[in-house]
Amino acid sequence: MIEGHAWSDWLEVGDFDLDNDHHLQMRLVSALIDAIEEGRPWLAHRLADHLHDSSTVHFESEEQRMRHSAYPERAEHLKEHDALVERMAELIETVGKENGAEALAAAMDLRSTLAAHIGSSDRRLAAHERSAMVEPYIPAS
Asked: What confidence score (pLDDT) does residue 133 get?
Protein backbone atom coordinates (compact mmCIF):
# COMPACT_ATOMS: atom_id res chain seq x y z
CA MET A 1 0.00 0.00 0.00
CA ILE A 2 1.37 3.41 -0.93
CA GLU A 3 0.90 6.04 1.75
CA GLY A 4 -0.19 9.51 0.71
CA HIS A 5 1.77 11.03 3.57
CA ALA A 6 5.10 10.89 5.35
CA TRP A 7 5.05 7.62 7.25
CA SER A 8 7.49 4.93 8.22
CA ASP A 9 7.32 1.83 10.35
CA TRP A 10 9.14 3.54 13.22
CA LEU A 11 6.01 5.67 13.71
CA GLU A 12 3.90 2.58 14.43
CA VAL A 13 3.40 2.38 18.20
CA GLY A 14 1.52 -0.92 18.14
CA ASP A 15 -1.86 0.38 19.25
CA PHE A 16 -4.64 0.37 16.65
CA ASP A 17 -6.41 3.53 17.84
CA LEU A 18 -3.24 5.55 18.37
CA ASP A 19 -1.78 4.45 15.04
CA ASN A 20 -4.98 5.40 13.18
CA ASP A 21 -5.01 8.85 14.78
CA HIS A 22 -1.32 9.31 14.02
CA HIS A 23 -1.87 8.39 10.37
CA LEU A 24 -4.58 11.05 10.20
CA GLN A 25 -2.34 13.67 11.78
CA MET A 26 0.51 12.93 9.37
CA ARG A 27 -1.88 12.85 6.40
CA LEU A 28 -3.28 16.23 7.34
CA VAL A 29 0.07 17.93 7.86
CA SER A 30 1.41 16.45 4.60
CA ALA A 31 -1.70 17.61 2.70
CA LEU A 32 -1.26 21.02 4.32
CA ILE A 33 2.31 21.20 3.03
CA ASP A 34 1.10 20.23 -0.44
CA ALA A 35 -1.62 22.91 -0.37
CA ILE A 36 0.90 25.58 0.64
CA GLU A 37 3.33 24.49 -2.09
CA GLU A 38 0.50 24.54 -4.64
CA GLY A 39 -0.51 28.08 -3.67
CA ARG A 40 -3.94 27.09 -2.34
CA PRO A 41 -4.24 29.15 0.86
CA TRP A 42 -7.97 28.51 1.35
CA LEU A 43 -7.34 24.74 1.37
CA ALA A 44 -4.22 25.13 3.53
CA HIS A 45 -6.21 27.09 6.08
CA ARG A 46 -8.97 24.45 6.21
CA LEU A 47 -6.39 21.68 6.61
CA ALA A 48 -4.56 23.59 9.36
CA ASP A 49 -7.86 24.07 11.21
CA HIS A 50 -8.74 20.38 10.84
CA LEU A 51 -5.26 19.31 11.98
CA HIS A 52 -5.56 21.52 15.07
CA ASP A 53 -9.07 20.33 15.94
CA SER A 54 -8.49 16.61 15.37
CA SER A 55 -5.15 16.74 17.20
CA THR A 56 -6.78 18.43 20.17
CA VAL A 57 -9.31 15.58 20.38
CA HIS A 58 -6.54 12.99 19.94
CA PHE A 59 -4.41 14.57 22.67
CA GLU A 60 -7.38 14.62 25.05
CA SER A 61 -7.84 10.90 24.40
CA GLU A 62 -4.16 10.24 25.11
CA GLU A 63 -4.42 12.27 28.31
CA GLN A 64 -7.34 10.11 29.47
CA ARG A 65 -5.28 7.01 28.71
CA MET A 66 -2.34 8.38 30.69
CA ARG A 67 -4.53 9.03 33.73
CA HIS A 68 -6.19 5.63 33.40
CA SER A 69 -2.84 3.79 33.28
CA ALA A 70 -1.07 5.97 35.88
CA TYR A 71 1.55 6.86 33.29
CA PRO A 72 4.65 8.15 35.12
CA GLU A 73 5.74 10.50 32.29
CA ARG A 74 2.32 12.15 32.04
CA ALA A 75 3.41 15.69 32.96
CA GLU A 76 6.18 15.78 30.35
CA HIS A 77 3.92 14.25 27.72
CA LEU A 78 1.23 16.86 28.40
CA LYS A 79 3.80 19.64 27.94
CA GLU A 80 4.63 18.23 24.52
CA HIS A 81 0.93 18.19 23.62
CA ASP A 82 0.54 21.81 24.75
CA ALA A 83 3.54 22.86 22.65
CA LEU A 84 2.22 21.02 19.59
CA VAL A 85 -1.24 22.59 19.91
CA GLU A 86 0.35 26.02 20.28
CA ARG A 87 2.44 25.47 17.15
CA MET A 88 -0.67 24.35 15.27
CA ALA A 89 -2.52 27.50 16.34
CA GLU A 90 0.43 29.62 15.19
CA LEU A 91 0.46 27.75 11.90
CA ILE A 92 -3.19 28.63 11.33
CA GLU A 93 -2.24 32.30 11.67
CA THR A 94 0.83 31.90 9.44
CA VAL A 95 -1.15 30.16 6.68
CA GLY A 96 -3.44 33.17 6.52
CA LYS A 97 -0.55 35.51 5.68
CA GLU A 98 0.79 36.20 2.22
CA ASN A 99 4.25 34.73 2.86
CA GLY A 100 3.90 31.12 1.76
CA ALA A 101 7.55 30.37 2.50
CA GLU A 102 7.05 31.08 6.20
CA ALA A 103 3.97 28.85 6.34
CA LEU A 104 5.75 26.09 4.43
CA ALA A 105 8.73 26.15 6.79
CA ALA A 106 6.43 26.10 9.83
CA ALA A 107 4.38 23.19 8.45
CA MET A 108 7.46 21.15 7.59
CA ASP A 109 8.92 21.79 11.03
CA LEU A 110 5.62 20.79 12.64
CA ARG A 111 5.56 17.53 10.66
CA SER A 112 9.06 16.69 11.86
CA THR A 113 8.25 17.56 15.48
CA LEU A 114 4.99 15.60 15.38
CA ALA A 115 6.78 12.55 13.94
CA ALA A 116 9.41 12.78 16.69
CA HIS A 117 6.66 12.95 19.33
CA ILE A 118 4.90 9.90 17.89
CA GLY A 119 8.10 7.90 17.49
CA SER A 120 9.30 8.56 21.02
CA SER A 121 6.74 9.82 23.54
CA ASP A 122 3.70 8.03 22.13
CA ARG A 123 5.72 4.86 21.67
CA ARG A 124 6.66 4.96 25.38
CA LEU A 125 3.01 5.50 26.36
CA ALA A 126 1.88 2.48 24.32
CA ALA A 127 4.69 0.35 25.76
CA HIS A 128 3.72 1.44 29.29
CA GLU A 129 0.11 0.42 28.70
CA ARG A 130 1.20 -2.98 27.37
CA SER A 131 3.64 -3.62 30.22
CA ALA A 132 1.12 -2.53 32.85
CA MET A 133 -1.46 -4.78 31.15
CA VAL A 134 -3.96 -1.96 31.37
CA GLU A 135 -7.20 -2.46 29.52
CA PRO A 136 -7.57 0.26 26.88
CA TYR A 137 -9.43 3.30 28.11
CA ILE A 138 -12.91 3.52 26.60
CA PRO A 139 -14.67 6.81 27.32
CA ALA A 140 -18.23 6.65 28.55
CA SER A 141 -20.74 7.46 25.83
From this structure: 76
